[in-house]
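Q: I have two molecules that I believe assemble together. Could you output structure tokens for the complex as a whole instead of separate predictions?
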Amino acid sequence: AQSVTQLGSHVSVSEGALVLLRCNYSSSVPPYLFWYVQYPNQGLQLLLKYTTGATLVKGINGFEAEFKKSETSFHLTKPSAHMSDAAEYFCAVSRAGGSYIPTFGRGTSLIVHP
Amino acid sequence: SQTIHQWPATLVQPVGSPLSLECTVEGTSNPNLYWYRQAAGRGLQLLFYSVGIGQISSEVPQNLSASRPQDRQFILSSKKLLLSDSGFYLCAWNPVYGYTFGSGTRLTVV
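A: Yes, here they are, computed for all two components at once.
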């Protein structure tokens, strides 16, 4: 079985501040890990993914995430928040049991203050 | 390149009316296709998926059904809508290295 926990349904930062969105997972096999972003009334867009190899992965819009097996975490970061980063962010894990259908977290709403 | 289309973008339907939402994929063949629902303030719920024409797996027993009449077409239907069917419906393709999602349909049942 696999599961995802996103800590904090809402995260509020000031423009220019560090963005940190937390994601912890559980998986019985080596996981594939994903972050998606969703803007209002739009579909989800893949931000970045970890499958194998380098544990620090870079994505679009200046975001990156680090796979830490010992902590079962895959936190999303961005050094400096922009107003345009305000959106809903979803962490997802897949690959358990041979199925690639991901399990999604409940999402974290990122609020950026001017 | 591969693209995924969903329509309509928004829909307001009365309780008890039928529903048909369509999703099509371009630029690939034999895709695995998925229907999700996002209720207000909640996460993503997998409703159906299909690995080929005529092959449908249901994840949640409910008032909805799905069909795969053609290789790149996936349809979500209901014979009689309930208020609880309101939500944002998303079609997705190919989850192995990250889904590609459609733009979604906002369904409001009144």
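A: One point stands out. Residues 76 and 94 of chain A are 17 Å apart (CA to CA).
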